[in-house]
Amino acid sequence: MDFLDIGDKSVFFYILIFLLAIAAAQCLSVGSLFFFKRSGSRKANAFYGLLLIAFGLTLLHNILDFAGVYEYFPGVKFLPLYYTLAFPTLLFYHVKLSLYPAYELRWTDVKHFMLPVFQFLFFLGLFFMPVAFKSQWGRSFYNPFYGAFEQFLYLSTFVAYLYFSHRYIRAKRLELRRKRSPELKKVLYLRTLIRVLFFLFVIHFVFVVTDFVCYEFLNINLRSVKPYVALGMLSFAALAFWLGTYGFQVLFWGRKVFGRKG
Percent of the chain scored above 90 by pLDDT? Predict the structure, then answer.
């Protein structure tokens, strides 16, 4: 037996699960603390907390899927833990409300939440379906669960909202530079968040697009290639880890930057 094997699993399998679990625990714990954060905008804190929790739950889904839990226990398939379409909206509103804490949500903002709500309701409804029905849902193009269309929406909206967030940050930075305002530090914090996130997302983007192209045009299912799946999951975990690390810094060292009141 290979010294890297433990039963039917390798040491690398357990290392990957361990890394994903750390990232998930970090997101869930730090995200929960944002609801108790008093400094800064409470609304912005709530959106960032939800963003981290959404990432943490999606990581938990990835762990269960990679570990084969859904195969061993098909009754828990489509457990509503998958929130990829919520990431862009939650991130964007955190940035917007951090820059403009007096902004009040309006009915016109509802359109930004339609895709995340639909995704959640889809999984919730499908989760309560009979196992025989759920097993029929495969990797079809329009399947909101891992389907190519869902992946397209995930990637395109993430890129779009990163761009919108950057535009808000850039406009606010130019405004504060003219006024020589001390709030400029807060804007620079947010700019760092978006810039690093964009760099990590480009890496993750490549993995997702390569998987799509190979599956749809070359009839190659890269999700059956464990090393590729592991690297793709690590690219996603890197996004989560950066968001969690940034959140931890803001919670414990960003009070002077983000202020005591929102």
Answer: 59
Tokens of residue 93, six digits: 């509103």
Q: Which amino acid is at 86?
A: A
CATH class of residue range 5-102+111-254: mainly alpha
Q: What is the mean pLDDT of residues 123-147?
A: 76
Average pLDDT, the chain: 87
Are the C-beta atoms of residues 52 and 247 closer than 8 Å to each other? Answer: yes
In this structure, what token pair is assigned to residue 259? 């202020």
Could you read off the pLDDT of 192-239 as tens digits, one per residue? 999 999 999 999 999 999 988 888 788 888 877 878 888 999 999 999
Q: Which residues pair with 6 in a beta bridge?
A: 9
Instruction: Please state the domain extents for the chain.
Output: 5-102+111-254
7 dihedral zone (left: phi>0; alpha: psi -120 to 50; beta): left
| 17 vs 202: CA distance, rounded Å | 23
In angstroms, the CA 55 to CA 87 distance is 8
